[in-house]
Amino acid sequence: MLRLVNVNVKPLARKVPGEARFMAVNSTFNVVGFFRTPSKVYCQPGCMQTALTEFWKKKRVFVVTDKRLVDIGVSRKVTDLLDQYKYQYQIFSNIEADPVLANVMEGVNAMKEFKPDVIVAIGGGSPMDSAKVMRVLYENPKQSFASLARRCKNIRDGITEEDRMSPLASGTLADLVCIPTTSGTGSDVTPYAIITDETSETNEHHALADEALMPTMSIVDANLALEMPPTVTANSALFALAHSIEAYASPLGNDLTRALCLHSAKLIFTNLPRAYAEGKNAPDAREALHHAGTMSGMALANTSPGGVCHALAHRLCASFRMSPGTAHAALLPHCVAVEVKSSQTALRRYGELAAHLGFDAADDQARVTALIKGIEKLKGQVGVPAMLMDVVDPKTDHRDILELRMRNITTGAAADALLAAQAAGKMKAPSAAELRKMLVTAWDSPAA
Q1: Using CA atoms, how far apart are residues 15 and 21, in angstroms rounded to an integer?
Q2: Is the pLDDT of residue 193 over 70?
Q3: How would DSSP label each residue in 319-344?
Q4: Half-sphere exposure of 317 (CA within 13 A, CB side)
Q5: Counting C-beta atoms within 10 Å of the first and last residue's C-beta, which end of the chain has fewer, N or C?
């Protein structure tokens, strides 16, 4: 049960302009939670045309996207409107599928030269995450990426008193508008970004978390997702499903986040097979998945740091350069199966979710078993492999390579999982050895 209260916690450093927030206490762990969203979310096919008129007083727009979206004409749907509305704009498209630090810093330098008052990110998580970090560095010129990574490890706590007294600027020079073209990352509504430092020996993923990373506006226009290829459709939707399922059982969850989880998961199970098979000929299914992606992002944003699945998948993506959707889909059933063995609360929550999705049975354990089988069935319907060994390149990423990388993956994931547990008021989290066992099982064994 949630209730608004006055609690003895560290004061908020500032009120973030243009950000809707709801403070609440999770009575189970007595930890303060927040419900954050951008100040406005547009969500209807064709809504982009209306949404962009809100910035009619602005003059200079910096567009962040990737080369593929430029080549296939998706970004032009946005720039045509910018032309129509007489905005000056510059396109930056040097963004890789897994955004790297060099691209981000190149974009920051371009921003400083162009001096935008609006930044528009078009694409999946990579352009949106990159644009978030670019804006923060553009608006906070005294910050380096290293100092940003140090202070942005945990949005709930962990920054120094000095940092707390000098919060990052957000929106002082430019608004940030995120326009997702895939339906899974949820980055358009989160104060998080993941950037890879390609200069480090381990290709380190930096998961940044700060209220300054929250977009000003999200434009969830399903017309931009109509042409998504089937593989991208499947992977992005399963990424969103991992957000919804793991966030539902999070100790940091509340009635607001769980409502989003229930409906977004239902939309994905109901609409993914048809959207995958029929593509643009099923616009209603496309719209449902697009909305589910943003809803699951809201749920994740307000229950983060994420759980074991997200902790492992992020490290796995960094090590093997696989898509987040693929990694989360492979790990999710195994993570659910392990979590319900160690937590009665998780068993009850996943049982509730399973029942809502139509996986009813005699008790929670049976419902969770049916849920796991349902996830595996859904993966099969959309051509997503059940095991990690079927995802990686067998020529370069075989089992021996996994063994060599295992220590970095599981040690880092264990640290992330511990951070999440501590944020929720728990003292115990899976060890590196336990995570290693889970990862080895997911490598060559289906969950159901």
Answers
A1: 9
A2: yes
A3: HH---HHHHHHHHHHHHHHHHHHH-H
A4: 26
A5: N
